[in-house]
Write a structure and sequence with these properties.
Blueprint: E1 4-7, H1 14-25, E2 27-31, H2 32-41, H3 45-55, H4 62-75, E3 81-85, H5 91-103, E4 110-115, H6 118-132, H7 135-138, H8 140-154, H9 156-163, E5 167-171, H10 176-188
Parallel strand pairs: 1-3, 1-4, 2-3, 4-5
The structure holds BIS(adenosine)-5'-tetraphosphate (B4P).
């Protein structure tokens, strides 16, 4: 199994690229954002609790997403590996993921980090707001908070992965197809 993290600030194209990459390389795409939004859409107790946190652009508690991911890892069969999208988002989540994978005879093979400047991120998320109907895309103050949360809580994971020699920056500006080609070039080395 080959396991990748796709990483970057909100609006960097993680979700967009993950769908295409998972199909090309037969990877299981695990997006904690999608899982949480599915809980909200289904009106579960968990979804009700998480919705106000997400609409402010804050992170949900580590334990919630860790449990979701562990369940998915254990119930997935017949794939070449996992593509983790939007997870981990804190160093604690990263340590937990490493532990989970190690216990199952796997590891994080590469962390692909999409590099996109601030103004482009805001532009993309505002453009998406109408289509997605997501409360966290609508309000510019919430978008700024999401970017700030990324810088303070999520970005430190880059140093953690750099120390392990698995950090791979990728230019995230350009057309969706151009960025896909850049990512494929790095990922093909693992197959
Ligand atoms: P996510 O669902 O992960 O949302 P995101 O950071 O906005 O990224 P997404 O993948 O959706 O967008 P993309 O960049 O592809 O998280 C949402 C919330 O869930 C978080 O704020 C948090 O509250 C919670 N959460 C999720 N995981 C968590 C965790 N592990 N721990 C705690 N809390 C967690 O795309 C953005 C837009 O850009 C799209 O419209 C796309 O079409 C466009 N785009 C993409 N590539 C482009 C390109 N090359 N050019 C132009 N536009 C492009």
């Amino acid at each position: 199994m080959v396991n990748f993290l796709i990483f970057g600030p909100p609006g960097s194209g993680k979700g967009t690229q993950s769908v295409k990459l998972a199909e090309k390389f037969n990877l299981k795409h695990l997006s904690t954002g999608d899982m949480l939004r599915a809980e909200i859409a289904a009106g579960t107790e968990l979804g009700k609790k998480m919705s106000s946190i997400m609409s402010k652009g804050e992170l949900v508690p580590d334990a919630v997403v860790i449990e979701m991911i562990a369940n998915k890892i254990d119930s997935t069969k017949d794939v070449a590996g996992f593509l983790f999208d939007g997870f981990p988002r804190t160093v604690a989540q990263t340590e937990e993921l490493e532990k989970m994978l190690n216990e199952r005879g796997m590891k994080i093979d590469s962390m692909l980090v999409l590099d996109v400047d601030h103004d482009e991120l805001v532009k993309r998320l505002i453009l998406r707001a109408d289509l997605s109907g997501r409360p966290d895309d609508k309000d510019p103050a919430v978008i700024e908070n999401r970017i700030e949360v990324y810088r303070s809580k999520t970005e430190p994971i880059i140093d953690y992965c750099r120390e392990r020699g698995i950090y791979q920056p990728v230019n995230g500006v350009g057309s969706i197809d151009e960025i896909f080609e850049r990512l494929c070039e790095f990922m093909e080395e693992y197959f």
